[in-house]
Each structure stands twice: as structure tokens, then as C-alpha cells.
Amino acid sequence: MIRVVTTFFVSLVLSATAFADHPPKRMLKNMDAYSNLGMTGMLGPFTVNVAKFGTFPSGKTTEVGNKNFDKFLADKYNMAAIVMKKGEIIYERYNKKHKLDSNSPLVGMSMSKTAASAAIGHLLCNGKITSLEDTASKYSKSLASTPYADVKIRNILQMNSGVSPLGRSDEKQFNQKSRGMRQFDGQANVREALAFYDKAARAQGTKMNYHSTDTLALSVLVEEIAGSPLSHVFYNQLYQKFGQSGYMHWTSDKSGTTVAFSDLVMTARDWVNFGVFIMREKKAKTCFGNFFTEGVENAVGTGKTNGSKYGFQSWVFPVSGRPTLTLQGHGGQFMVLDEKNDTILLTISINEEYKAGNLFSNIGKFAEKLNKSGNWN
Description:
The chain is an alpha+beta fold and 377 residues long. Helix content is 33%, strand content 18%. The longest helix is centred in the C-terminal third of the chain and has 17 residues, at 268-284. The relative contact order is 0.17.
């Protein structure tokens, strides 16, 4: 498993996981800290609340070799990689140097955001949310007193609320306040973090801005609709349908509200099973599957040169000529759900700069290569 973090990681785990400027060594230590939070309860010197579910995995470990895939996925920065084809794992690798295996809980960084949107999809399909065109204040007393009051749920899902100023320069304080770190030690509070903004920066639906605040708003929304934290909704209503290890944990504030923009920890197999679940539901055209399909089909532009768009708390990349739902996390966590080829690529990394290419620039091409018999030319 990942080495248990101790307090000598103090200065290394304090910064927000949202900024793509962390060198690999720091990323590794951050990953250690968050992945082991369920056991330690600590991030550096700070006691951080965490919702734990199940017992720590201890079953037989698994691994599936494929030399062709090793050519581009067995990178020194890769911590875990799984490739699934037609529902079968055809490649599974863990970084033995860092003592990882299939029982190791791994933080998904911002891949967690897609789990947050899945909770919204669940509530929509169970009639708890009438329409994504409804405003947040219809369901949440807390959000009714914030700039999110009149924002449509759809726009919050698409990071298009207009609440946060363009850019991410102020995001760190929101993340630290939500977790209760640095100057907010002992004061973890998602709702108070959202109150940092007293007015919206622009009209909703006019320009997407990737920022922690919209996902925090979704966390509050889910909790006040369901009567329990988002992490509980996800575990009880969704994880139970796909999870195999039986274990997950997710950071919370001091009241139990889920820190939904990051910090969800599951084994690599459970992460990929989450992808299988979404793909299966999409293929069956269930309400839940149609929710994610709508997010892909109506994704908004990001302005990035890699051709990406943004759906419902998930990225959308062109893969094999088709817009493809992609979970993405800081440092190089990706899960590409290639429905056209019935293939899923999961890679959990501490740096995006693989020898085979930059993950953020080439993840779509990586996924396409999987369907050419694993060849890397």
C-alpha cells in the first residue's frame, strides 16, 4: 500500500491539489497523505475530518501484464493503470517501487468531481430534483443566501455559474477553508467558504471557469436535498452498485459536509468500475446514463487548445472522432470512457509528462492507441 503519511509532510500537503505546478515528489507525498487520510486522520499537522466507508482492502492482489501497453503506460510517474476492453481487464499495473497494488486506496484528485455530479444524477433520476433548469435556491436554504441562489443547477454542473472570477488565483483559500488547513486550522466549513463570495462575477452561462466553488455548491445542494452528506449518498446509492473492494473515504468539513472538488479515495479497480458503471448506464439509456450523455452532448467550450469541453463535472475530449467523457485530476489522473470502442483507460499519476507524451495534451491519442492491439508507433 502507499506509505503511511506522517507529520514530516507538513509543508508538502498544505497547498491545494488544484494547481498544476507541483513537482512529482511533492505530488507523490500529497497522494500519500490523501490516500492514507482514512487511517491517519491527518494532513501534515492538521486534523482533517474524513468520512470512511467499509474496511481497508486486504484481499488477493491482481495484475495483468501487456508489454505493448507497458510501452506508454509503465512510466515512472504512473502509479496505477488499468485498461478494460468489452468489460474485461486486459491490462493492470501498479508502481511496485512505491509499494502499490490492487488493494491500495488511491486519491482521484479532481476525478472526484464526477462522483459529485453522479450524486446529482441520482437525485434527478429519483425525482428529488425536478429539472436541471431549477435554481439552487429551490432546494437549498444555504445556497439561497449566496450568489448561487438564482443559478441553474445545469450551470453549476458545467462550471458555468458565473460566481467565481475568471481564473483560479483565489482558489487555494477556498480549498484550505473547506478542509480546515493553514490559517483555517480547526475551522473547516464548506458553507463559510462559499460565503467568501458575496456576489457573482458575471452572468451565469456566459463563460465556463474551472473552480472549486461550483463543486462545493453541489455538495451543499446534494446534502440539503438528501438529508445526508454527498459522500454518504455516493457510497450508499452508487458505490454499492459497482464497488468491489468495499472501501472508500472522502474528506469532510467539521460538520460532515463533503469536500467534493477532490479527495475521493478508492482502489484503482473501484475507480475503473465506476467508469464501467457510467458506460453501462449510458449504453442502456437509463435516466442516470442519459444524465451523463446529456452532459457530453451539451458540453461547453473551455477555451483550451487540446480540444476539450466540459460536461457535468467531467471533461469531454475528442477520441476516435467522437466526444468522449473523461474524468481528469491534477497531476495526471485520467479515466477515458471510450464508448465507440468499448474501452476504458485509467491512469493515476504524479506527473503528466510521460516519456510517451503529455497526458493533458495527448490523453485522447493514448486512448485511441489502446484500440490498435496495444501497439505504440
